[in-house]
Amino acid sequence: MFNVQTPQGIFRRYIFWLRYDGSRFPEMATNVRGCGVVDTMQKCIAYIAGDAGNLTRVSPSSRTDSGVHAIKTPIIAHVPIIDGIGLDDTIEIKERNIKKANAILDKIDPGAANLWNFQSVHPGFCSRRHVEYRRYVYRLVVPRSMETYLEKPSLPLISEMKYSWILPPTFSVERADAACKKLQGVHNMASFFKHRSRDRHLDAFENTTKWLRHVGITRGEGYNMHSTDCDYYNVTVVSRSFVREQIRRMVAVIASHAIGRLPLRDIDWLLRTPHPANFFAIAGMKAAPPNGLFLADVSYDPASFVDPLPRYVHPWDVSDAKRVQFPPLDD
User: Fold this and answer.
1) Predicted pLDDT at 322
2) Which CATH number goes with the domain that contains 176?
3) Are residues 126 and 153 in the same domain?
4) 328 occurs within a structural domain
């Protein structure tokens, strides 16, 4: 197996596949309160690791905003080997640890998160740099009449409020599709990049050119309850990486064109003149709410788990004296 000797002892690297409901956590990343998704998973993995579990370290593959959900997202974990036994040395041990993890997650907050699967990976594997693509889905709900949109929400609409963006019936799926086609392809996405003015004085722009392999809209369905008074749509975006808040800003532009507020020429302008300030130069424009966004999948070449190319050295594997800072990766 892929054990690695570090100054703190022998460790093994694992990739854990997780689902979580973003409305049940204050945020995805580690926070000062210590109860975000990453914090919770670190404590959960340390719990199943047993003795010396306090040495467990975790890191997400993708950074998502507070309120965003995940259907299947990986977290990499650096876990000490206790008595020469790893968390997945046999099928029985692995299944027992998955059950143990899900049992404790269910006790913490029933239904908030669960562990799909996990496996050992080569210590040279990087959960961010070896990604082939990420697939996000943004859910839209469109009432079929203005009365349904404006009146007090029905039970199906109440059930959607944490998991979709509810738009007025002026929404046109044909216009939404036209906006999606504009955004698909290779573009400099700086106009869709959340880069605050105070940060621009501190650091230069990261690489904001992205290949959007797919941007499309399809029919969807109700999240928990279905209503015949509404239409449901999924906006799917596929790329290897994204700049901060890119998808939410893209969906805002798609929705604005679909409801007749934004002409296609303004989308062309955002792409032709890439700059973070330009998004808000359009009157009334703001990012789509986070609650409709789902990280649906993160894909890897399976060979990278056992024989990654290139191989990376993680700061976990070196002493504090030799620790190096790696440049941040965009997601």
Assistant:
1) 43
2) 3.30.70.660
3) no
4) no
* Rounded alpha-carbon distances, angstroms, from residue 276 to 191, 203, 271, 284: 4, 13, 11, 16
Structure confidence by residue, pLDDT tens digits, 126-148: 999 999 999 999 999 999 999 99
Instruction: Compute the distance between CA of residue 82 and CA of residue 50 in angstroms, rounded to an integer.
Output: 8
* Tokens read off for 133: 């693509």
Instruction: From residue 136, give the alpha-carbon distance in Å to each of 128, 229, 295, 318.
Output: 16, 26, 5, 34
Residues 194 and 46 placed together within one structural domain of the fold: no
**Same domain as 276, residue 192:** yes
The helix-helix angle for 37-49 and 91-108 (nearest 10°) equals 130
In total, the chain counts a number of residues equal to: 331
Residues 317, 248 share a domain: no
Q: Is 74 helix (H, G, I), strand (E, B) or coil?
A: strand
Asked whether residue 329 is assigned to any structural domain, the reply reads no
In angstroms, the CA 331 to CA 172 distance is 30
Domain hosting residue 305, numbered range: 3-130+301-322
Does residue 330 sit within a domain? Answer: no
Domain count, the chain: 2
CA distance 235 to 157: 19
**H-assigned helices in 66-145:** 91-108
C-alpha–C-alpha distance, residues 209 and 327, integer Å: 17
Binned at pLDDT 50, 70 and 90, residue 200 comes out as: low
Residue 168's φ and ψ, nearest 5 degrees, are -70, 160
Same domain, 188 and 263: yes
> Would 173 be classed as within a structural domain?
yes
Amino acid letter for position 36 = G
**CB neighbourhood size of 228 (10 A):** 7
Instruction: Please name which of 327, 30, 290, 57 lies closest in space to residue 164, comparing C-alpha atoms.
Output: 290
Decide: 80 and 56 in contact? Cβ < 8 Å.
yes
> 0.85 exceeded by the pTM?
yes
